Amino acid sequence: MAPEMRQSVALLAEVQMRLEALEKKSARLHQRMELKISRQRRPHLDQRSSITKTIPGFWVTALLNHPHLSAHIDETDEDALSYMTDLEIESFKNNKLGYRIRFHFRRNPYFQNNIIMKELHLGMGGSPMSFSNPILWQRGQNLTAHSEPRKSSRGVYKTFFSWFSDHSSPGQDDVAQILKDDLYRDPLRYYLTPLWEPRENDESPEEEEEHLDRVAVDAIDVAGSDDSEQEDDDE
Known about the structure:
With 235 residues, the protein is α+β, with helices and mostly antiparallel strands. The chain is built from 7 helices and 6 strands, in the order αααββββββαααα. The protein has helices at residues 3-52, 58-65, 75-81, 160-165, 174-183, 187-191, 205-234; strands at residues 84-91, 98-105, 115-122, 128-132, 150-152, 155-157. The longest helix is centred in the first third of the chain and has 50 residues, at 3-52. Residues 5-32 form a coiled coil. InterPro entries: NAP-like_sf, NAP_family. Keywords: Coiled coil.
């Protein structure tokens, strides 16, 4: 290599080292910010959890209304998921890349677990890995025993509980990713989906948000009127 080229390569290496140092600094700052936001988010998530537990069928409705997640839910899955009371998703701390999904259930005829959990993270070699705790099925109620993939216009899908126990392709787990990045961030959006009206082509995002606010208020009013009618009936 010519001396001029060696000098240029050496200068380029120095620049690259400075860039890599900035990338590492950025990653550390991002992690600190994520932890800070996570702590600020926690009381709101706890409050949301308390509220959703008072709404019968909240989570199964949100799951069924989601255009992608619903493809994994058959009628038997739907009945089992109707006993679901809460969903928790948390990212790992201490530089461990990954997250944990917890599904909470009340007592039901399908399995004994109060909580079933699926975890996705990077292994020692940097390869994606997943793990889930065993579902303690009631006798004769194993929903994965005879489940078969079902085809749709978007491809081949497993049933919900088969997905939960499947660890064959953790790096391509679209269901887990959608749960974490979409449904969990705004479950009310999907719970209210049937109440929405199609957005007009010229409707702005701000107008769409105002429409969602009106839908939410209407839903609350409906719930309140139902409670009032129930009280009148009791009298």
